[in-house]
Records
---
Amino acid sequence: MTTVSEVPPGTGESPTDATTRQQRQEPLLRVEGLSVSYGRRATARRREGSTRVLSGVDLAVRPGEIVGIIGETGSGKTTLARAVVGLKRPDAGRIAFDGRDLTRLAGRGLRAFRRSGQLQYMFQDPLRSLDPESTVRQTVAEPLAVAGTLTRDEREERVTEALTLVGLDAGELGARTPGLISGGQRQRVALARALVTRPRLLLTDEPVSALDASNRNLVLSLLDRLRRELGLAVVVISHDLGSLAGIADRVAVLYRGRLVEQGRTADVLERPRHPYTALLTASAPSVRREPRLLPALLRVPASREPWPEDEGCVFAPRCRFAAPECRDEPAATVVDEPDPSGTDTDTGTATGTERATVACHRAADWRAELG
Amino acid sequence: MSRPPETAAPARTASAAHGPVPPVLSVDGLHVTVGGPERVEAVREVSLTIGPGEAVGLVGESGSGKSLTCRSVLGVLPPGCAVADGSIVLDGDEPAELTALTPKEWESVRGRRLGAVFQDPASYLNPSLTVGRQLSEQLRVGRGLSRTAAHSRAVDLFAAVGLHGPGAIYHRYPHELSGGMLQRVLIAIAIACEPELLIADEATTALDVVVQAEILELLQRLRSEQGLALLLVTHDLAVVARSCDRILVMYAGEIVEEGPTADVLAAPAHPYTEALLRVASTAEAGTGALETIPGGAPETGAELPGCRFAERCPYADAECLAGPVATRLVEPGRRARCVRPAGQPSGRRQDAGAAASAENPSAENPSAENPSAENPSAENPSAENPSAENPSAGNVSGADATAGTGATTAGTPEPEPEGSRV
């Protein structure tokens, strides 16, 4: 089995360095005020014909950190990832990777950055994102072939290394096509393909949503191991709170293109500050029998007048606690960190260096209405 | 719309009344074969009963036979699959043996006495007709209502399933409604003829959690208001945890455990249920170590000498492999297909687990994981299975696609059993 030292991460530091250094490290990825539209590109003066799917999103990810992005279908999770990897050009905002603004890259500079493979995106649904006619080895080797910098032998070596890293036997599975391996194995092939370029940041889109509980835990613990051993920064996009609770240091909650809340995973999931996060956590099915908020208490009563469309807070139409002030759009505000030291001693990872934010006028007082 | 609090929903009275009152549905010794001439058994010796107003959860991973079981009840088995043995009796005013019905007789059962909703609501509706028209059609054909009576009843039903502005919804086409709204429309169609039993096969799998919770609450409300019996088929133990009176756990074509939900979740009697529960709760708790179940399920229809879970079971010993394991009584109302239904010897799990990981370093180390899951594929070369959509291993988990992945498993919540193509 491959040991860590054989697979140096892009930054060339050992795992212990990674954990101690990341606290004072600058974020590897810093997204500021990101807005993205589909349809005609929106400008400051003209918005007709375009649909805004992301608005003013801020996000930071440090080496060795796992950040979860959660939201329902259509909330903009995938668009956020696609904008970061350069598959979708944003209307506004900055995407800095290691201090470099990716939105300003173009032409040769953009191609060179992409081929360097420092930033990798793992598509959702490996059954459809893997070429059914390519073998596992060909699939995993593709990013290296595109970069074209390594010899054939070096490439083969890196493919074996990547497959070993995700726990697949290169000899046994290497010659098979995606149709002949199980769903869990397929997801790990997709992961190996992303890791083969030795990235520093990995964005994974719904990596576990198609897997059963056992395989889900397997893939999640693999991501957890990679960030610990290689100092890899990971963004996990998911609609499932349960899969993030296990591994993410921080979570960001998206609702209709707005980042409504972000903070440390335990804080956000156990004591949500935004009513939408509260509804999400209360609705999640659970095998644990613990008293918690009932979703019915967080929904809008049928008797209430419908909220005017597209006015103010994006969540107001579904928010039980919407008040007149919610007709103005709330800005994301920094809230006090419950743990001032900012260090999660359990995992030894930097978690408090990014402040928790919430975008809600009623963040401080909606709980009082629950009685 | 008023929603009763979640906790009030599971009616314990239903299961209490289960003794004297005849069950709505009783399945006895059901065997389903797949694969035409060289057929193999994908469902073995499945017996279950559902009492009036009772909610029963049928839980299992994809390929465990849960969908074949409920499709047998509905008489809509995919081509190549057949009920080989056993009886399915729908009781009530006119008891009916479903396995013996002619297509003509099915017309008075399916949609009338049995309702069903599936994973992908959009694929069950005609895209070129309004949803209201599709519901009234069911009312006119099924209940003989006039055009105007059907219209007003349809609007009432849309309101009953919690659709806001039912009068306007009536004139909407399927593409104009969200997934959660379409699932409500499908539920309205399913309950239009006031069936005795509603079967929900992965009905909430493709929905967002918030909408999933709403649909589960709706089903509970229909139960308490209309005395509807419910069979909830899902791969997610957490979905049934709060909404079912009893649960049945399926593994590799067999029911391995059955009992009241709270009892089964508090103290599972079968090691597979125990493993499922451990896997489900470690991720939720966020305690760090994410557990997995080593190995994979046996191939569909594989003939094994003893317990079908033995290969992956940390407690397995010679007794488990000696011969087929029958269902045994754990305590009144609880059964488990295990040689030690009263509980596993304490301390064994540690020993057995250690032995297993020495043999194949799988438990912690993903590099050697899943030895048995890989075997079926190895034994089953590509020639037998040309479709990349339907890989060979019976336990392939990718099939239970959930929300956000753009589920392509429209209308077939489980992959067609592989043997049926041979």
---
Amino acid sequence: MSTREWLLTEQPGSRRQARMGQTYRTWLAFRRNRLAMVGLGIVLALVLVALLAPWLAPQDPIVGGSLRTERLLAPSWQHPMGTDDQARDILSRIIHGSRITLLVVALVAVIATPIGLLVGTTAGYYGGWVDTVLMRITDIFLAFPRLILALAFVAALGPGIENAIIAIAITSWPPYARLARAETLTIRTADHIDAIRLQGAHSARIIWGHVVPLCLSSVIVRVTLDMAGIILTAAGLGFLGLGAQPPQPEWGAMIAGGRRFILDHWWVATMPGLAIFVVSLGFNFLGDGLRDVLDPKAHK
Amino acid sequence: MPLIDISDLHVRFGPVHAVRGVSLAVDEGEAFGIVGESGSGKSTVLRAICGLAPTSAGSIRIDGQTLTAPRPPAFYRRAQMVFQDPYASLHPRHTVDKVLSEPLAIHGFTDREARVERALNDVGLGQGFRFRFPHQLSGGQRQRVAVARALILEPKILLLDEPTSALDASIQAEVLNLLDRLRSERGLTYVLVSHDLAVVAHMCERLIVMQHGQTVEELTRAELQAHHAAQDYTRNLLAASEGFTRAAP
């Protein structure tokens, strides 16, 4: 029996085989979507570049060359993306900057998704005053503009990429909470929730084991689609000088640095801009593909 | 003493008065039917017994003990329910194995493997079905899984909410025969809700007819089969179940 047959069998022999078969089926459905595969490719490339940055970057991202002869050089074979006003190779800076971007994306996803899921499913499942209290708190957080709250954070804690990440995470969970609550409201009246309640299950078991798995897919899709916005917010904070601090090679801060010579030396601001564009696009494609695969309601 | 004793049960959902003073008594080992059209409150009576619908007045006693809300954990080991729609009553992301072993985990059983295997065999599904997801099962197979889930805690009372109305006619008979066999093997007590008089006549020794949340009348199987109904509503229901007959010219 080939691996493929083993995975796709209608009669799995163990829990592991059933779970892996299910994952493989999802992958087969995902693979059919070409744009989603492009998005996955971009995101995987981002991860690889971030992991291998010290080996991939041709030059040092922080210490530039001769300030007299190597500043603001146009793209050439030696500097494929040119050099900036500190005579640093822009390609090397972008490669190292991918680490910061990936850090932002990963930390925001890890912080905001569980908070949103927990608040949303709890509010939706219990209803009543629990719902009211949790959703009003969510409304309060939704009322803060991301950048303004980030400004307040940075003012309180000092500028830096960590504080920017915390600020972005704190302002990005409310939409997930609303989404999870809306899903929970339709799930909690389902017969299979009544059934597990009749087996004597406690609320925590029902929320965690039965409601969350059904909300998870639409929340994952939403988070993936939001990644582009999160990268842009981080870049915006960098542009304002509130995110990553020089000489860290953060893409938004690099655009801010190139702003002064945008007419004469276009590549200084354009290259990091392109990097932000490509990665944001990659996450959007990936999110769209995941929605087609994971969200059963989008099928029909 | 009857096993299930409901007296003057009222259920209100806000302004809707769904059940208005229903009383019934079911003896141990008996199969009791509740018949009525959609919205007559028949399913709500079942849901009130197992605590899914609120009791606004009246009392429900099992073995002479009045049920409290919320139900104590021990209650769920005495009474279980099978739902109408097998496509909605199984969690779409859980395998059959997970569906069957979770109640055992909740109630702290240790011999879960053996019990899950036995439960699958009891409802006529082999071990080949154990690690399938619901979307890999047909409607009849799903309903068998639902029956297995209801029986895995070895309850004495099974509440059946139109267990066959979402199934094809040929599969209906299979599931009804399965339920019949399980009842005689285990001495179970059934409360069966249905709008299908044929199903109720096949399964139940006694039944009540409900309309607008109230009991219209109580019949035995013999009376039902002989069409000895006292009330007009029941006679209409019986006539309707005969199918369409052309009026004489």
